[in-house]
Design brief:
Elements lengths: L1 H25 L9 H8 L5 H34 L5 H28 L7 H42 L9
Helix pairs in contact: 2-3, 3-4, 3-5
Amino acid sequence: MFLVIGSILISGIILLFFWLKSLSKKQTEGWFPPNEELESYYNLTNVSITQKQKALLAAAVTTIQRIEELENERDPVFELSQDHIISFDLLNFFEKSISDLEVEKMVICSEADSLKDDWSNSIFREAEVMASKIKKIPNKKVSIDEALFNKKRETLEKKIQIKLGLINEVNKI
């Protein structure tokens, strides 16, 4: 009897150990998914250098955007970990993601130098300019969406007022 219970306990502990080990392996992915632009750059084989430069610049833009996002999130994450709202493991994971992005940045710099001499000094400046232009595009779209929303709201308000008899149908839209 004790032998059966002991073997069940030991096998349960072994299964728990392997399950926890598999969970820790799943969390090896960083804060962001892999940089698809950088992967597509590595998949380019028989293309011109300008196409490779464009792909590498797109990868640099993605890296810059991710670094900026993590820099914006750094203080809140640190404060939440100091207040014990999030675990220090998550803070360490966050710091590891920052270091992974720095490594990715160095890889892009070395690839830039292999494509064009001394391009590593300017690729991230170009990427920052492109990233700032990309940020400005959604802001214009939001203002158009807000204007459209306001116009629809005004139209619906007038229709409701007409149905309620608050305004005459002569003053229709």
